[in-house]
Amino acid sequence: MFRTTGALVVAALGASILITPSSASAASDWKCYGTQVKRCATVVWDQTADTFRARAKITDVAGGGSYQVKVTNVKLLRTNKGDYVTVRSAKDYDGWHDTEDSAATVTVDPCFPGQSYTVVATFSWKGASSGEKTWRPNWAIGNVCD
Fold first, then answer.
1. Spatial contact of 64 and 36, defined as CB atoms under 8 Å apart
2. pLDDT tens figures, 53-71
3. Which helix (H) or strand (E) is 122 found in, with range?
4. Is 94 strand, coil or helix?
């Protein structure tokens, strides 16, 4: 279910509905988790260009375990009623970083009525312990086509 007051709708899947003000030129809201290694993802809407892109970043948090980090396989997914289709992807195999790594897809024209977008990425870390997690925030962003 989407409610709109402008062109952009942000909906938490299975939760509350948020509406982004139409005055934003590049609306995004990072969704993050993790304590020693913070993994974040978002879908950015560029209102001026009327496009979406997926972004992801991973950060070794100060005072944590001194990890090397990387983010790979960032995907912008179009979703409708629980079905996901990859519309843009970025492999970003530039290796390990000491503090932070980020990646983004190229943009897409969002005019798919009834569709919304979400992001998924693979986050990796090594140091005191190692891990890899492919994660998608539990929300999506949509655009009502004019």
1. yes
2. 999 999 999 887 789 999 9
3. strand 116-126
4. coil
